[in-house]
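User: Run a structure prediction on this.
Assistant: Running it now.
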Amino acid sequence: MAPLASITLVRTISFSIYQKSKYQYSSWIEQATGSAPLTVVNTLGSTPTLSTVACFGAAGATAGAAVTAIACPFELTKLSAQISVLMAKTSTTTIDNRVRQSYEQLGTFKTAKNIIKHRGVLGLYSGFHLHLMRDTIGTAIYFMTYESSKQLLATSKGHSPTHPLAVVIAGGLCGIASWACIYPIDSAKSIYQRNCLTHSRHEPVKLPRIQFFNRRMYRGLGVSMGRSCIVNAIFFSSFEFIKKRINRLEDYV
């Protein structure tokens, strides 16, 4: 239940920040150019422009950067739970046996306490800089792809930007595009965090290189993209449906 609750919390905060940032950036761009990106997007027959893409990208980057402070500890404990058995069975002289074995078969909260025990409170933020890079870039691409592809798909069919088919396809595309672009960063982050978990506080941990042209950094990409495509298609369909119902309720008030 803890991972589900953490994902729900992070998603809720991320989307709340994105929604508010989107309107703020649109207002700033309108003041600078005389044209509001959100007005352009909601106009039937419109296509993405530099201002709309910049607005969604900036809002997404803001949301991704802001939520990293909350997401990093949750993701680190989740990673620890996923590889705990592997860590405990690993045999190498460079790893403190007591440290690696202490993570085996622990729940989320006990894992967090264990990380603090071995690496201090800041240990919960091991790999923060890589996490920040991944989520800032990834969330920017995520929302740019979703909003722009939704607009293009709706325009090609003469529908509104929130047409169900456009939302489903755009949701799937944004999940694929974001993972395809940030996967090497995510791989480097996971490697670094894994190494941090298997070393005590005062042991140096080498920072892995982010290699965009190394095939090994893309292991598991197909599975992640497929899962993200399905999850985001369902998620955005639900999100837009609920948002429409809430907006209708506000019209009656």
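Residues 65 and 73 are 14 Å apart (CA to CA).
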